[in-house]
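Running co-folding for zinc ion.
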Amino acid sequence: MAILKLYEYPHPVLKKKAEKVAEVNDEIRKFLDDMLETMYASNGCGLAAPQVGVSKRVVVIDIAHEGEEANPIYMVNPVIIWKSEETEICEEGCLSVPGQRAEVERPAMVRVEYLDYNGKKQELLAEDFLAVAVQHELDHLEGVLYIDKISRLKRQMLLKKLEKFRKEKA
Ligand code: ZN
């Protein structure tokens, strides 16, 4: 396995609509392994392929807390087939927008269809934080970041803080 390079805002790959995967083969499985390792190494709970510079419809998620057993979910070509009308507001962060967080409102529950690690079709009803993670990662496949879903004023403030964060880190 290998740790992949993370692409950060405003890299254009994050704005691109990702392409469907034709087949879940060994090459894709190796990529899923690398993505999971990269996500764990960065303490993330979700990672979408565009975040490692690959414009493909591939996502990994693991919302297990520290100290809990790992519980990775691999999703290839995921599609949300149902969203609840009820919404919830949750604070989100993103490995592509390091050091920042903001509250985002989304449907509280979603049903998602995808191909798993073995290329088998799966369906998952996600609620609570898993619903947030699924929607956040699937947005990446459409070239959408969570900061696109907050008000312009909040986004401007957040991007200023991001700039400051990067300068302090440099
Ligand atoms: Zn993200």
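Result summary
Residues 62 and 71 are 6 Å apart (CA to CA).
Helices lie at 26-41, 128-141, 152-169.
Job closed.
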